[in-house]
Design a protein that fits this description.
24 strands; alpha+beta; six-stranded mixed beta barrel; about 800 residues; elongated
């Protein structure tokens, strides 16, 4: 045994360089698995913090909850926290419109209502206000000062400001401040107010099962319970069909990561063993048995795994650390409690487990083949050089020079190695195209600042005239001004276009003999100018957004997804050319659907059947309105506060001023949280793919050192050797590229068209990506063989031939 272990050690020592290449290949694969799964784990932690900040830290709420129901839920062992939210409707704070409500003190922090001065309201006559309200509307107001609030029903009452809380971006953008009373105060102001029971479950609870149990036990109707779908999606407990589609898409892509990691490790280890069968035969010549050769290969696999795993795990964790650091420094106020260096046990566990398991499995077949090598073949070297028969490959020499033909022959003569090399390159490209789906989803479906996103908005139910529009354009510091007109109209069309979900929700829809239905709700009609139509092209599913063409065709633009009860809903299955009939002051008008948009960047205040867009000219013809209901303003970066004051002066008191900068900043932060990791996934895959190609080509060339020496001995020049090796690399690379692009694009299309169909993402053939992949892959493959070729040509021919 001692002599056998000495043999193993001498063998590994003699082939340290070749073993090092295999170690690098395995480490790269482990880094891919560790990096991707660590990033996913850490991303979910960051995203949970972001979702809680944006939507609140609760799992569900129950409408119109009774005291008995609240007590019963609070007594459950699986519930961590229960609180009450009482909306009180619109009121007036010292004459200005506000939104009144009350929360239990124990759940105020769950909704990011944090007191920065004073304390939470406790008495019946106490309230807290947002900081921006105090600063912009009541600069002299302090804690413990009194204010007058006009309550629903026009009753006026004096309240004491017990505290000032941090700003809420949505209320600030709406220009309607939130005023929070105590629960006792809410009961005094509006005893009949609807009470919402807010529920947060303990960690590890299966929330959907708990929800069903609460429904059944307390006999609560389905429409009284609403889930915090965004939070449930992050923690993997959502039953929403859209979220399940995302889960399925993610599962497919991360399964690809596992397959890629396994294939890369197996390919690297297999090449390493297969190219050294002569050395195993020589070991047989000096007395090693087949069992010893098998154990030698397996022990080599164990040695490689132990050497490669630490490097791979560290590299994967370093990538995750970079993403975490970017987010922490970008938004320290939100992620200040997150550790700078976050360790993911899931990522490390996946990397170590897959690495060990794959190397262990990868060593079996090569070990068997190595053990079967004949000592005679090993000594004569007949296993090293195989030229296929003339009738099969001789045609290559008629089409190409002999050196290029030999290179192609070297690539394909060992089918298993050729397939593994091709698959190793192809799987990297497939992953790249597959993960692009997340980028398309992120840019299409997530709210973020777009070219049309305003900093300031002005609104008025009475309308804003063109004179104010012109004056706003002349204000110094204003970058862009654009307006919209809104109206609610009675619109009808072919009743078969209504979705089953909408029909079911509305129950009774009357359909006339002509196939048109009597609209149960009004539709929301919006006007767009030429710039807004151009900006909307990013959400265009099909059709045209040319203003002149829309006017010429009496056209209208149909919007697929719009908000109903704060849920993005599809109520109509639109098709181009569909006829829409709108009732106007001068009679019913017929319009034609000339374009279909996925969504619009704002929502209707009222519950609407669907959303339509048309030009300003057609809007005025249909409604008779010519004044803007909303004007959006974009500011230059410098001296914004001076510009804001000038805008307020032009707007006057009649027009409502909306400062949307904080809200859009919060939206951008949410988008950036996801973007860092999504782009991180793609960057890791691209980097690992490049390193994998480099290492695979290096390994392939380095392990054929003796073969290249023999070719030089029989007269092959250095230039011919270069061409032969480049031809071999090109054969692997081009085959892998073509295969990867075809399968990757097919996967991308399937995921977008079928798995994410409900999001209406428009798939287009990624020409730019295809060209970049082809250029980069071929370039990397060529560059990767230059260094090992130089080393081979620098060594003497006799030394190469006699080397093991």
């Amino acid at each position: 045994m001692k002599s056998y272990m000495g043999l193993v050690n001498k063998y590994l020592s003699a082939h340290k360089k070749k073993t090092r290449l295999t170690v690098i290949g395995v480490a790269i694969s482990v880094a891919l698995i560790t990096g991707i799964f660590s990033m996913l784990d850490v991303f979910l932690r960051f995203e949970k913090i972001q979702v809680i900040h944006d939507y609140g830290n609760y799992h569900l709420f129950i409408k119109d909850a009774s005291t008995r129901e609240i007590q019963a839920i609070n007594g459950r062992l699986d519930v961590e926290e229960v609180g009450r939210w009482i909306p009180l409707g619109k009121g007036k704070l010292n004459g200005n419109e506000c939104e009144l409500g009350a929360l239990d003190e124990n759940i105020m922090d769950n909704f990011n209502i944090r007191v920065i001065a004073g304390r939470y309201p406790k008495a019946q006559n106490e309230i807290i206000l947002e900081q921006w309200v105090v600063e912009s509307q009541y600069p002299n107001l302090k804690v413990n000062d009194a204010v007058k609030i006009s309550l629903p029903g026009n009753a006026e009452k004096e309240f004491i400001v017990s505290g000032i809380c941090s700003d809420l971006g949505k209320t600030k953008a709406a220009a309607v401040p939130g005023v929070f009373l105590s629960i006792e105060g809410a009961a005094e102001v509006k005893p009949e107010a609807e009470v919402f029971c807010i529920v947060l479950f303990k960690r590890g609870v299966k929330i959907l099962n708990a929800e069903k149990e609460i429904k059944n036990t307390l006999k609560i109707a389905d429409d009284r319970i609403q889930l915090n779908e965004r939070l449930l999606a992050v923690i993997g407990q959502s039953g929403n069909n859209h979220v399940i589609e995302l889960y399925a898409t993610g599962a497919v892509l991360f399964l690809l990561v596992l397959i890629a990691g396994v294939l890369m490790i197996y390919n690297t280890f297999n090449i390493s063993v297969m190219e050294r069968v002569r050395q195993f035969g020589l070991l047989r010549c000096i007395g090693a048995s087949q069992a010893q050769i098998k154990n030698l290969v397996k022990r080599e696999g164990l040695y490689i795994a132990l050497k490669a795993l630490p490097y791979g795990v560290l590299a994967g964790m370093f990538i995750t650390f970079i993403c975490s650091a970017i987010l922490k420094f970008y938004n320290d106020s939100l992620f200040k409690d997150v550790q700078l260096f976050t360790i993911s046990t899931i990522g490390i566990g996946a990397g170590v487990a897959i690495g060990f398991l794959t190397v262990f499995l990868a060593s079996f077949l090569p070990a068997k083949k190595a053990a079967r090598v004949s000592p005679v073949n090993a000594v004569t070297g007949s296993n090293d050089i195989k030229i296929k028969k003339r009738y099969k490959w001789g045609i290559l020499t008629h089409l190409q020079h002999v050196d290029i033909a030999l290179g192609i022959n070297n690539a394909v003569m060992r089918k298993k190695t050729f397939i593994l090399m091709t698959c190793s390159i192809a799987i990297s490209i497939i992953m790249f195209f597959g993960f692009q789906v997340f980028i398309d989803f992120m840019h299409t479906c997530m709210k973020t600042t777009k070219p049309y996103t305003p900093d300031i908005s002005l609104s008025s139910e009475q309308g804003i005239g063109k004179d104010i529009y012109e004056r706003l354009l002349d204000i110094k510091g204003v970058k862009r001004v654009y307006g919209r007109m809104f109206a609610y109209v009675d619109a009808t069309f072919d009743a078969t276009r209504l979705t089953d979900t909408y029909k079911k929700s509305m129950k009774d829809i009357t359909v006339n003999d002509d196939g048109l239905f009597i609209p149960p709700e009004k539709s929301w009609l919006i006007s767009y100018d030429r710039n807004q139509l151009n900006w909307s092209k990013s959400d265009l599913i099909e059709g045209t957004l040319d203003e002149d063409e829309i006017n010429a065709q009496n056209g209208i633009i149909a919007v697929v997804m719009h908000l109903r009860n704060n849920i993005s809903t599809e109520t109509v299955n639109w098709q181009l050319g569909e006829k829409v009939y709108i009732d106007t002051p001068t009679g019913r008008k017929e319009l034609k659907v000339v374009a279909i948009l996925r969504t619009v960047p704002f929502s209707s205040r009222e519950l609407a059947l669907t959303t339509f867009i048309t030009t300003e000219k057609l809007f005025t013809e249909l409604t008779g309105q010519s004044t803007f209901k909303a004007i959006n303003i974009q500011l230059n970066r410098k001296d914004q506060e001076q510009t804001v004051q000038a805008i307020k002066k032009v707007a006057g008191e009649r027009i409502t001023f909306h400062d949307e900068r904080q809200m859009h900043k919060e939206i951008d932060q949410a988008f950036f949280t996801i973007a860092v990791f999504v782009y991180g996934f793609v960057a890791v895959i691209a980097l690992i793919s490049i390193l994998n190609i480099i290492n695979t080509m290096n390994t392939s060339v380095a392990l054929k050192t003796r073969y290249f020496g023999i070719m030089r001995a029989i007269g092959m020049t250095g230039d011919q050797l270069d061409k032969m090796v480049l031809a071999e690399a090109a054969a692997y690379t081009l085959t892998g590229c073509i295969t990867g692009c075809i399968l990757g694009i097919s996967l991308q299309r399937v995921l977008i068209t079928y798995r994410l169909s409900s999001f209406h993402i428009v798939w287009k053939l990624p020409f730019v990506q295809i060209i970049l992949v082809l250029i980069i892959t071929v370039l990397i493959a060529v560059l990767s063989v230059i260094s090992p070729l130089k080393r081979i040509k620098a060594v003497g021919i006799s030394e190469v031939i006699n080397s093991l």
